[in-house]
């Protein structure tokens, strides 16, 4: 037995290159006579050429053969990445997301990311801005008097600073549509029901009000204390309106309807100040010209006119929504006025 072991070891040392390189398909079979029996270990041939020393070490190792090449491959990839760094002017997204080239009707590049050409429109300035919903019951009177009460400190604070007043007003007016749309969205998910388009209608309203604010910011830069006021008012108003909408959606929509009526009054006063020369009729911001499809020579007066028309449409939508619910119906039972700015 001892002679057999000695003979086997000698044969291994002499014929190591050919003995340990017996190929078996995709892997390699490795024999061992040290214990008087053959042991098969799976491995890789490193390009089809077996090296005795390497195969011997591989036979004694428990790590897969690919791990020997992993550091080299990783180093090569890092080198390639460093070489290519800075060569690409436009970084491509791993997720395949890229902004297509969008142009205006005249062929010039569309400059805005916050809205697209197909989201622009011409405002219907023929709408009746003097229409008023007369309070008919306790909830109507509560909503109406609350809005009138809240207007007093606003007028005292801003007085005749129409631009700042409008800017502050839009930070408030953009909240109800988002809150109402969010709550209707959750209700739709919870009850497995369609919304009748009202989710989209209310979110459109919130987006439209936000665009009013983006326009006003181009005209008036808020001071630090006005920003602080916006922060406080938004925190209080969002939570208060959320609770009101959860408790009584019809009261919430009636409140917004009256709020929009007050917005119309404020913008009418703004227009009168422009016409009287109290406020300079400056050129319209570029964002307003593109969003409302105004002529290139549009002025501040044109901008305030279309914003006031938008507020009149929002007034109608919210009073309409409140009327539906006062009749004992749900919003989804009546078609939503989509695209009705």
Automatic annotation (TrEMBL):
| Compositionally biased intervals (Basic and acidic residues) | 70-84
Membrane topology note: Multi-pass membrane protein
What EC number(s) has UniProt assigned to this enzyme?
1.10.3.11
Q: Which InterPro entries match?
A: AOX, AOX_sf
Going by the UniProt record, its keywords in alphabetical order are: Electron transport, Iron, Membrane, Metal-binding, Mitochondrion, Mitochondrion inner membrane, Oxidoreductase, Respiratory chain, Transit peptide, Transmembrane, Transmembrane helix, Transport
**Reaction catalysed by this enzyme:** 2 a ubiquinol + O2 = 2 a ubiquinone + 2 H2O
Q: Where is this region: Disordered?
A: 65-84
Q: What is its main location?
A: mitochondrion
Name the cofactor(s) required for activity, per the record.
Fe cation
- Cite a GO CC annotation: respiratory chain complex
Pfam families, alphabetized:
AOX
- Show the stretches that span the lipid bilayer: 166-186, 224-246
Note on cofactor = Binds 2 iron ions per subunit.
Taxonomic superkingdom: Eukaryota
Which Gene Ontology MF annotations are present?
alternative oxidase activity; metal ion binding; superoxide-generating NADPH oxidase activity; ubiquinol:oxygen oxidoreductase activity
The GO annotation for biological process reads: alternative respiration
List locations, semicolon-separated.
Mitochondrion inner membrane
Q: Give the family, as the similarity comment puts it.
A: Belongs to the alternative oxidase family.
Complex formation:
Homodimer; disulfide-linked.
Against PANTHER family, the record matches this protein to: ALTERNATIVE OXIDASE, UBIQUINOL OXIDASE 2, MITOCHONDRIAL
- The protein here is known as Ubiquinol oxidase
- Name its species: Hibiscus trionum (Flower of an hour)
